[in-house]
Amino acid sequence: MGYSGAAGSTRRTFVAGAATAGGMAALGAGALPAAAGERVRVGPAGQSVAVLGGGVAGLTAAHELAERGFAVTVYERRALGGKARSMDVPNSAKGNRRPLPGEHGFRFIPGIYHNLPDTMRRIPFPGNANGVWDNLAAPREMSFARTGREDIRMPIPWPGSEPEKLTLDDIARALTALLDTAFNLPAHEVAYFVNRALVFLTSCDERRDDTWESTPWWEFVRAARMSEDYQRILAIGVTRNIVATKAEEASTRTVGTLGEAFVFNALGQGADGPPDRLLDAPTNEAWIDPWVTHLESLGVEFRIGWTVRQLGFAAGRITKAVIEDPDGVRRDVTADHYVQAMPVEHARRTWGAELKRADPQLARCDKLETDWMTGIQFYLTERPPLVKGHFNCIDSPWSLTGIAQAGHWRGRDFPAEYGDGVAVECLSVDISEWDKPGILYGKTAKQCTREEVAKEVWAQLKAALNDTGKVVLSDGKLHSWFLDPGVDGIGTPNPTNEDELLIHPVGTLHNRPSAATKIPNLYLAGDYVAVPIDLATMEGANTSARQAVNALLERAGSDAEPCKVTSLFRAPAIELLKRHDRTRYRLGLRNALDLG
Asked: Residue 87 pLDDT more than 90?
């Protein structure tokens, strides 16, 4: 039943050359084939750029540089789009249909994003006035799915959107859920949480960067003293499911900054669009493939299956990037500039001791932490009566979030276009917790086999959605499943994940590097780089690439216009209160609203 993507040719399809690269590394550099050379060509701007990594950060950097006349070559070890891409489920297509669409995790593009949507508007798409940005669809509601209790169903109002049509039963259940939550959350706890939110909202930047960056969210909201509902909804639900960090460890600065941004977004302040948006087709069809086509039209060249092994460093500069091609042949790639757009856990393996000494912020990247947040898709033979948007299973041991996607794919007939004609829906689920026991086998996700992970997630979904007398998911309607192939070795003592996510425990802010390094021809782009959004997101990756390009333009002496970098919205009225708090902070006083 499942298309696990676990082994053999399937694994090699998605992780091209990974095993070969690992084996070569184990033998040491001397065992590698003799180096061949590749010089990145020079473009109209007179300088060449090697972009190392083809995810959102790498493609953004290539886009901005190519528009400014630089010759750009992108080196990507696996597949363009990185963690954001969609992928074909092997052996799932019949007739003239395309394979079922799989992905690392569902896409989520909220209105708090500004830089990524700007890029999307500049990617042409047939029939769209605003490029691929017009392929964004806005769900009309979301829910907190409670296990054994009515789900909390919330509409997402936005000008021009039609509210979801509800049955009498839907309305009754929504009211029951709201009243149940209201009565189980003591009034004094609600008041306290509101006070904590106001404290953060009116805290100056210095207090946020110092005090709140070093304070865990769990401690900031005093969760240990509160009710279980308070802990599940306002402490754990906010952090583990959205920021992919444990509430006991998560930086209050990070959690609070994102919470503040979403509140302003919901109020229509400084927003690019609704608080919740997703693409109206599989990611590659709606975004990545048109982007690559556009970049090729701008002269960008791509090398797929090329693995960056090391950055050569001498005389204070990067002299080469040592990269293995798909045949395992080591090549010394040289360019005028190098934009390293790789995930931090892969990038830092390429930095030698001398390079780290030359720029201490690279050494500090060793302190950055990553964790598993990985997706699984369930293909169904009937569309389930789910909320028309994202749902958050806040009581699930594995911190599941999900969305039934096909209903948001406008103008597409899922069974006619994908798979074998039997599956009609793609239920995409993110697993945020891999280290707690589940309800079916009593094992963590890392201890389970791929088959066991699928069965466990399905059981947790049913526990959250099939309670209180309704049947949303049934075994007879499950067609197949697909688990991200970047996960390997689960169920063994040494599980691995090719696509971990940067998490944000206290102190992370001070270890995130800037896009401009002290090495004059090396620039960093990726969701771990210091950017205003302070979260590992596609927006962060896009923003960091813009900052890297701006640093490159300055050092290259280019007269091209810099990339625009838009920060999160700051409410003018709140800024007055934050200036007052800055005075208090410098006097050693707590925030005026802080009741302790």
From this structure: yes
Concatenate the DSSP letters of all residues of 91-140 into one string.
Answer: T---TTPBPPEEESS-----TT--HHHHHHHTS--TT-TTGGGGGEE--S
Residue 412 parent element (H or E): none
Q: Which of 5-19, 85-99, 395-409 has the weakest average pLDDT?
A: 5-19
If you average pLDDT over residues 479-504, what whole number do you get? 95
Task: Please say whether the structural domain 33-78+305-369+504-556 has been given the CATH code 3.40.50.11540.
Answer: no
CA-to-CA separations, 207 to 220, 385, 508, 590, in angstroms, rounded: 13, 46, 15, 9
| Ramachandran region, residue 81 (left: φ > 0; alpha: ψ -120 to 50; beta: rest) | left
Q: What angle (nearest 5°) sits at the alpha carbon of residue 542, between those of residues 99 and 264?
A: 105
Going from N- to C-terminal start, the domains of the chain cover: 33-78+305-369+504-556, 172-272+574-586
How is the chain split among helix, strand and coil, in percent rounded to 5? 40, 20, 45
457 close to 433: Cβ distance less than 8 angstroms: no
Could you tell me which residues come within 8 angstroms of residue 581 by beta carbon, excluding any fewer than 6 positions away? 202, 203, 204, 207, 591, 592
CA angle 364, 368, 370 (to 5 degrees): 160
The token pair that represents 458 in the structure block: 């399905």
d(CA 53, CA 201): 37
Side chain identity at residue 509, one-letter code = L
Neighbours of 472 (CB within 10 A): 19
Q: Any idea which residue has 């060249």 for tokens? A: 301
For the chain, the C-alpha Rg in angstroms (whole number) is 24
Q: What confidence tens digit (pLDDT) does each residue in 290-321 have?
A: 999 999 999 999 999 999 999 999 999 999 99
160 falls in which pLDDT band (50, 70, 90)?
A: low
pLDDT at 75: 98
pTM to 2 decimal places? 0.90
Residue 212 · residue 253 · CB < 8 Å: yes
Give the position of tokens 């830092």: 348
The sign of the dihedral angle between the CA atoms of 223, 228, 229, 235 is: positive
Pairing of the two strands 478-483 and 487-488: unpaired
Is 233:144 a contact under the CB 8 Å cutoff?
A: yes
Whether 364 contacts 76, CB under 8 Å: no
So what's the pLDDT on residue 233? Answer: 82
End-to-end alpha-carbon separation of the chain, Å?
A: 54
Q: What is the DSSP letter of 472?
A: -
Which amino acid is located at 364 in the chain? R
Phi–psi pair at 474, nearest 5 degrees: -130, 145
**Inter-CA distances, 504 with 54, 351, 445, 544, 564, Å:** 24, 23, 21, 17, 26
Is 514 exposed, middle or buried (CB count within 10 Å of its CB: 0-12, 13-18, 19+)? middle
Assess whether pLDDT exceeds 50 at residue 11.
no
**Helix (H) / strand (E) containing 219:** helix 217-220
**Of 393, 468, 397, which is closest to residue 427 (Cα–Cα)?**
393
